[in-house]
Design goal:
Elements (H helix, E strand, L loop, with lengths): L6 H10 L5 E4 H22 L7 H4 L7 H21 E4 L8 H15 L1
Parallel strand pairs: 1-2
Amino acid sequence: MRSISYSYALIEALIETSEYYVKSSNLALAEVFHVVYNEIVSLKMYRLGIPLTLWSKLRAKHDLSKEEKFLVREVVSKYLKTFRNYAEIVNDIVDEDIYPKLVLEVFENLWSRS
């Protein structure tokens, strides 16, 4: 996990100090898990020598096996349990009118930068 995520360094720093009060949400944690999962699948395809230009087409074919998914889940669960000892997890409240608008704004900002 350390070699694929800068967020690991942040979490380690937060765990090692009591100077900060940390809050997160289940939605934020799920997004982090999704990014880590995609990074692992990308690393798998890289190690198989699949050209980057084909990753989107071949992603489903090279998804993680049941055993690999189990290992990822175990590692992520371990870190989430540790993180929950140092952070308050707040309930997510999703406003069905505002949330889709926010998602679209994020995508518009991402596309305007590229």
